[in-house]
Amino acid sequence: MKLIRSVDILNDKKSILRLNIVSIFLLVLFFLLFLTVTTIIPLKESSITFSVMQLLLVTAETFLLIVIHELIHGVFFRVFSPKGKVKFGINIKKGIAYAASPGSKYSRGQFAWISMAPFVLITLSLTIACFSGILFVGSYLFLATFHAAACAGDFYWIYLVLKAPKGSLVEDTEVGINFYH
Questions:
Q1: 167 phi and psi angles, rounded to 5 deg
Q2: ∠ Cα 117 121 127 (to 5°)
Q3: What's the confidence (pLDDT) of residue 57?
Q4: SS3 142
Q5: 78-123: pLDDT as tens digits
Q6: Rg of the Cα trace of the chain?
Q7: Dist CA 102 CA 177 (whole Å)
Q8: Residues 171 and 180: beta-carbon distance below 8 Å
Q9: What's the angle, vertex CA 64, arms to CA 34 and CA 52, rounded to 5?
Q10: Which residues pair with 88 in a beta bridge?
Q11: Could you list the residue ranges that cross the membrane (predicted)?
């Protein structure tokens, strides 16, 4: 197999800036989407206001979501490469939290699952929590919107995986991904 593309997202300031800009667009898009979701099915609580206590709680929940998001990536890395080591990190200056399995290679389909699993599982869980009355509508809108917009990097990986030639392997690295064919 020959290396056909290497993507270093962690050290590419332009890519990080582009992803942050995309995240702003996604904030608006997902807020409108999740607001629409809350209007389709009647809920016990229709207010979108926050109390100070709710604001403190949603802040703590946001940090918890980041941890859970990266843990989900880690679980899927291990599912598809049981012997691979998983590393977790955060770069506060760049605003990036990450899970990585350096040196592990995955099929395009496996890497797509690894990339999308947190978005799908967390969005589904938050939506179920909202509709079952466990999560206030305002909290749901904030958490679901923030999380979905924060998945911009994962969506970027999916875009790159879809563009890669069929039969390619994706290698996770400490700074991004490599494609082999």
A1: 85, -5
A2: 150
A3: 82
A4: helix
A5: 999 999 999 998 877 777 788 999 999 999 999 999 999 999 999 9
A6: 18
A7: 9
A8: yes
A9: 70
A10: 99
A11: 21-43, 55-77, 111-134, 140-162
Query: What is the b/e burial string over 95-125, where b = at least 16 CB atoms within 10 angstroms of the residue's CB?
Result: eebbbbbeebbbebebbbebbbbbbeebbee
At 14-72, the pLDDT tens digits run 998 899 999 999 999 999 999 999 888 766 555 555 567 777 888 889 899 999 999 99
As a whole number of angstroms, the distance between CA 46 and CA 103 comes to: 48
Give the CA diameter of the chain: 56
Higher local confidence (pLDDT), 168 or 91: 168
3-state secondary structure of 75: helix
- As a three-state string, the secondary structure of 116-135 is HHHHHHHHHHHHHHHHCCCC
Contact 135, 38 (CB under 8 A): no
